[in-house]
Amino acid sequence: MDLLTAQEAADFLRMSPRTLYRHKEIPRSVVGGRQKFVRSELEDWIKTQRRGGAPAESKPYGAAQPIDGGRVNFYHRNPLFQSPFIRRG
């Protein structure tokens, strides 16, 4: 197991350390109060990003949701806007 510091992981991923910290989906571990990155986990993460596959627990923005008759979360910047696709009870 090859542990990398934040700077080494950022260099490996070709991004700045600040960007590395902002991406919470990048696998990391806390060792001695510091974030460390395992090289093999980073390689696996890169492969999933290249395939365009997102982790199973997260859904991409705009993904289709099954309609179960529950309340639909809908936002429009105009509060008076009425969507023709949402049935009002």
H/E element string?
EHHEEH
Low-confidence stretches: none
Overall strand count: 3
Shape: elongated
Integer average pLDDT = 76
**Cα Rg:** 20 Å
- The helical percent reads 25-40%
How is the largest sheet built, in terms of strand order? 1-3-2
- Largest sheet, described in full? 3 strands, antiparallel
Structural class computed from helices and strand pairing: alpha+beta
Helical segment count: 3
Model description:
This protein is α+β, with helices and mostly antiparallel strands. The protein has a domain at 3-51. 30% of the residues lie in helices and 11% in strands. It has three helices and three strands, in the order βααββα. A hairpin with a 2-residue loop joins strand 2 (29-31) and strand 3 (34-38).
Brief summary:
The chain is of the alpha+beta class and 89 residues long.
Helix and strand topology:
Layout: E1 3-4, H1 6-13, H2 17-22, E2 29-31, E3 34-38, H3 39-51
Antiparallel strand pairs: 1-3, 2-3
